[in-house]
Amino acid sequence: MAVKIAGFDQNSKRISTQQLLQELYVQLEQGETEFEVLSSGHHNIGGPLWTEDGTPLKFRVKNPGQRVGSFGLDGTEIVVEGSACADAGWLNSGATLTILGDGGDTTAHCAAGGRIYVAGRVGTRSGSLMKHDPAYDAPQLWVLKNTGSFSFEFMGGGTAVICGYGRMDLDSVLGDRACMGMVGGTIYVRGPVKGLSNDVWLLDLDDFDRAFLIDNMPVFLGKIERAELFKELTDFSEWKKVVAKSYEERNILSRISMREFHEQKWVEGGIFGDIISDDYRHVAGLVNVGANRLKIPHWQDKRFGAPCQVACPSNIPTQDRINLLRQGKIKEALELVLHYSPFPSSVCGEVCPNLCMDACSRRYIDKPVGMKELGRLSLDAASPAAKPDSGKKVAVIGGGPGGLSAAWQLRLSGHQVTVYEADKDVGGKLRQVIPTGRLPEHALSAEISRIKALGINVQANCQVDSKLFEKIEKENDAVVIASGAHNPVVIPFVGHERLVKGLVFLKAVNAGKKPKVGKRVVVIGAGNAGMDVCLGAYAMGAQKVTAIDVQRPAAFQNEIDHVKALGGEVRWPVLTEKITEEGLYTKDGELIEADMVIISIGERPDLSYVPHEWLTDRGMMDVDACGQSVKAPGVFAIGDTTAPGLLTHAIGTGQEAARYIDDLLAGKELTPIVKPEMINQSCLSKELFKPRNRGKFCVTDARDETLRCISCGTCRDCSMCLEACPEGAIRRIENTDGSFEYVSDDDACIGCSICAGICPCGVWAMETVV
Predict the structure, then answer these.
(1) pLDDT by residue (tens digit) across 407-460?
(2) Regarding beta strands 239-244 and 184-190, do their DSSP bridges make them parallel or antiparallel, or are they unpaired?
């Protein structure tokens, strides 16, 4: 009597597959060999199981899940009452599996032995990877009706019988694309067959085949309880067999022509039909020109920006400056930078952190191009000529680097410019704060003199208040807010009244007031300004200076190294608890002894002279994407009045504000300035440049940097593409305005990409033709 096993507990709640199989194993160990299983989608029922004495195992299963009979062994018989899910009989190794309904997808997948009988149909990829080990009986799959598509893929052995009962109306009882990759075995099939793989033959039955079906058909029909169909299913007029081609037969090529493919197989509007428009009557050669090329070259001079130009907040195109030097146009090269910044020597050449050098492509070869040395070359360069007077008046509030940059550009555009400066002279933090050891006085004075000589009116010792600002706004066509940030930030520690403000200290040092310092000085803040304070303290006689910060110092490494070379110490992270007459106490309770504590953690702008509603919640000017006040059209703000930044950021925003104002005064619509996209390093042929010895290299003459600059994204007119083109398809054209361009002749170019590969600047790009 069969043992009954249910897939539910006493509360009619479904148990897990693991629990059901464990219960079955317990019964098996107790000697039971016949089972009735009421399943609810439980997996793997029926195998791999055996008895020690070889007694056969029998299962009758309702509602099984996946892989019923999987790994089933010889001596196991499984009957499924109804249909089965996917993978029934998967890797069958000898069991007899009878399904009294339909089989799911991949029925008999990888079967290597045993028998599988299906009273209905089976799903897609059934019979795939069936195989036969000659040491054992071959597996068999019997199906009363039909299979789904992709059946018997990669079949390697065994026998399948597809009876096609009641399915003669189908296009193919084997589904679509049956027997792909089949290399062995035999498939007997009754009914229509289409779409077979080219890997097989469809043949008539011989006497052996008919005898096999007559002998085994009664067993199959008996298993599925359909014995009455024997006569109908043994009418062999409707039967064929499918066998795999031999290795030699499969390797006989019989490809149709492209014309035959288009005329017989191609489906208009089918997959790829919407993007393939080739004329099948035209056959392109291996090497082609014109429209038949796979790739087409394009000379893209200045399509992409050089890394130095894109990284520079002042937008200076150093590659153009060096190209002019390379052509021997020294005067034009030195003056070019003045179209972008009035401070090429004092800022670019001395105090700028040179973000351009950090981005320079040459650093991947040896060292970046010497931007500081290039900047110093322009110290004595004559200013460009200003455009004719436009009759427009612009006021600039603040004579720092940003304000002077805006004034410079506006004057070059032909506008009358007045700069209002609260200090005794213009220059801002360049003059007031930066030590002369970092910024030579003669360099700054020379460049400020050049600015003034252009015709810019400077109103020094003029503190702008709200009343004066209102008057300035009415009298001018546009206004630039460039008053910078001069209010030091002070954190209200206990004892904060003992703090000396770093900006005030530096201004006193630079003004020659020689402020007194203690022997031991602590500087709170280790940014670049903090390092300047450290240098100032040493210059005023301090013996030991310690800079602290709550995070990794933001100062540039060369600034930190300078302080350390003087005996200074830079510590982080250090959090301040309080300031006393003994010095600075940290949150950890440590006392850092000090006679003077200076705080230098940044400054905020004083914008009390403009209406409060013009400001953001943080007290900065509220501007749009073009730097124009949201609340006051015609008023622009730059530099630290909108966001903290470097001197070069102030110069860059001053330059951009001037361009916006020039457009505004010309009646043009303002659109945000967009930097060019930086060229990808993979476009550059850096291997064409010989590396210098890093240990010995130093810039002695900036003009020699013409040999090192890669000229990223800008053609250096080296003509290497012209000389290297194997077809002579490239020409250099000289334009009437003195410019030049390289062009490729479509009727000669074969799209070989040599021009793109050899171009050191990444100017040639290949378009892939789809």
Answers:
(1) 999 999 999 999 999 999 999 989 888 888 788 999 999 999 999 999 999 999
(2) antiparallel
CA 33 to chain centre: 62
**Rounded to two decimals, what is the model's pTM?**
0.63
Cα distances (Å, whole numbers) of residue 551 to 439, 575, 586, 701:
28, 9, 14, 39
Helix axis angle for 557-565 and 528-539, nearest 10°, is 20
Write the burial class of residue 528 (CB in 10 Å: 0-12 exposed, 13-18 middle, 19+ buried). Answer: buried
Beta bridge partners of 744: 730
Residue 474 confidence (pLDDT):
94
pLDDT at 434: 86
Omega before residue 676 within 30° of 0, cis:
no
End-to-end Cα distance, the chain: 72
- CA dihedral over 418, 419, 420, 421, signed as positive or negative: negative
HSE-up of residue 104 (Cα within 13 Å, Cβ side): 18
- Do strands 295-299 and 764-768 pair parallel, antiparallel, or not at all (unpaired)? antiparallel
Q: Which residue in this structure is represented by tokens 């005023």?
A: 540
> Can you give the pLDDT at residue 417?
97
Q: At what angle do helices 647-665 and 401-412 cross, to 10 degrees?
A: 30
**Residue 502: phi, psi to the nearest 5?**
-60, -40
CA distance 293 to 287: 8
Taking the mean position of all CA atoms in its chain, how far away is CA 497? Answer: 50
Separation CA 128–CA 160 (nearest Å): 11
Largest CA distance in the chain: 121
239-244 vs 416-420, strand pairing mode: unpaired
SS (H, E, C) 337-348: HHHCCCCHHHHH
Helix axes 502-510, 528-539, angle to 10 degrees: 50
Tell me the C-alpha to C-alpha distance, in Å, between residue 187 and each of 106, 157, 235, 705. Answer: 16, 10, 17, 78
CA distance 643 to 572: 25
The angle subtended at Cα 255 by Cα 250 and Cα 261, nearest 5°, is: 140
Contact in structure between 44 and 90 (CB atoms under 8 Å)? no
User: What are the angstrom distances between the C-alpha of 400 and each of 484, 578, 585, 644, 650?
Assistant: 7, 35, 37, 14, 9
Interatomic CA distance for residues 193 and 241, integer angstroms: 10
Cα separation, 160 vs 165, whole angstroms: 15
Give the single-character DSSP code of 265: I
- Give the up-direction half-sphere exposure of residue 621: CA atoms within 13 A in the CB hemisphere: 31
What type of residue is 648?
T
Q: What does the DSSP 8-state code read for residue 677?
A: P
Compute the distance between CA of residue 47 and CA of residue 140 in angstroms, rounded to an integer: 18
- For residue 708, give Cα distances in angstroms to 161, 339, 361, 661: 77, 24, 10, 38
Handedness of CA 306, 307, 313, 319 (dihedral sign): negative
CA distances from 236 to 147, 166, 225, 348, 658 (A): 20, 16, 22, 95, 94
Are 637 and 627 contacting, i.e. CB atoms less than 8 angstroms apart?
yes
Give the number of other CB atoms < 10 A from CB of residue 87: 24
Q: How many CB atoms lie within 10 A of CB 617?
A: 6
Residue with tokens 């009421």: 38
* Closest C-alpha among 631, 371, 380, 345 to residue 481: 631
Alpha-carbon span 694 to 38, nearest angstrom: 81
How many CA atoms within 13 Å lie on the side-chain side of 769? Answer: 16
Indicate the burial class of 81 (C-beta count within 10 angstroms; 0-12, 13-18, 19 or more): middle
Average pLDDT value over all residues in the chain:
92
| 659 CB neighbour count, 10 Å cutoff | 17
Residue 418 · residue 395 · CB < 8 Å: yes
Amino acid at 247: Y
The residue type of 345 is S
DSSP 256: P
Residues of the chain with pLDDT under 70: 253-254, 267-282
